[in-house]
């Protein structure tokens, strides 16, 4: 079985974005009417999924995708908590409908209504709702809700602990995923996403978060940003700065996904990082679409790269399936309930 | 010949930092006396170089190092232009003395007196002084003088053009190098440095800077941050967002150094990036010191990795020597004057 831990509903019906636009317009001009929540039919959802993500899923032979709202649209920089709560709820409800229309293909991961500098109570509540009422199996946690300005404390700070307590209680992991960059110096897909992965990993190296939360689990996407390419640098810095060994302090609770869009990158990832710490993913339909003109296949066809990597069958099965079942026990339970 | 394009005077005599500390103290309390500039003897310089960088240089058989002040101490976030001017001058003068005491081993690269949000006139002036009076062959350019907050415009913005005009006139390249991170979420060596490399590369992908400055040359250190590991991602984003092809728009004027501290990283770099776009470097004595416990050699012994990489002798010679002579023509002239 092939489980893709990183898919986004980047093709949601236009009514969703129209609702968001109207909500943001009303924040600027409170005289505007409260926008009606988007009315989207099952057929519209089916069309946007079947013609896009699911078409590719079937072509490539992925079995299950952990699916979340469009990451770049989470918009945590909008500093109105009520707007964030509504937007997360509407987005998550739409993901829920995808998972009920296509239960064999999709399981949900929640967008959280984070706002930089605000308490995490509403994120805790939405996580609980998404997991207990919508059957979601994980969430996306934004370490920089300011959108490229890094005004929040590191993920090792107690600011984040209420969310970690709820994640631990519910036994769900978080993918660490920023949203759009509001900083004109920092491109969203080509810099901010990768920088966030790198920055977060180093925050974990500096701290001892998993001593406090031994069952907390994080997925760092996009192949771990710059980290595996600079694996020697991290080992050397940890030694020089007398941080605990990374293997025992971080990699017990952290996984990198395979959203690295060329064979040499996947070869490095799978050669340097233990197969126990890698989860298959495509980010599809995500940052990079279209075909590699040299190869005649899609850049984000990461299954192709993982299949070609020098791995034992057992290690490949961990990356494709068994690690994900361990990191996302609620997904494992769903699959088992389906007889898979 | 082996040219290391990336060395810092991280072992400068304590008097240098004492002067800096006194300067910063006086910024807080103007009643304090103007600190005297540091008095450092030739013997002190010799001792700090011969016992450190030069010892390692001789052990490893490097022939020439492009040497600049300690990057993390540039401190461009200190928003007093006069302090920045003095600090850059004092640091560059010390580098100059290293290059005159050890002319066979060291050539200078200048620290610029940047201050976030301030015009670049004083940086232009210091670059001119360093090149024409001190014989420096390049400079370090900080794309984020705010130190982890990215408040400056992208390097493609005309804000930077006065410096590019002077660099072009003097025919010297810049290494893109940030200084310390003032942002508690972003570790200097384990995140900020790599993020800056990644961010800057993407700024260049988005723009068309080298159309305007066809002979401008940038070295992106630390192996290009996350870029080579995600080379497929960048190709895909450039295609999807209709940026010009990276090979023709960026790689004509950009080089990555080899400060990647393990064999798989160097193998990826040299396998993915053209050997014409790679410059040998060690960052020594830099971010990572000490030995890899598994290998019994220093993490930053990058010569070892480049020697072991699958490269033709001709490609290896480009990485070790001939590219650097091309990127730093003033270094080439110095070497030729020395009969090398």
Verbal overview:
Two copies of one chain form a homodimer. The longest helix of chain A has 21 residues. In chain A, α2 crosses α3. In chain A, β9 and β10 form a beta hairpin. The first copy, chain A, is globular and about 55 Å long. Chain A is an alpha/beta fold. The mean pLDDT of chain A is 97. In chain A, the strands form two sheets. An eight-stranded parallel beta sheet of chain A has the order 1-2-3-4-5-6-7-8. In chain A, strands 9-10 form a two-stranded antiparallel sheet. The first copy, chain A, has 13 helices and ten strands. In chain A, 46% of the residues lie in helices and 11% in strands. At the A-B interface, α6, α8 and α10 of A face α6, α8 and α10 of B.
What would the keywords be for this entry?
340 residues; homodimer; eight-stranded parallel beta sheet; 13 helices; alpha/beta
Quick recap:
The structure is a homodimer of 340-residue chains. Chain A has 13 helices and ten strands.
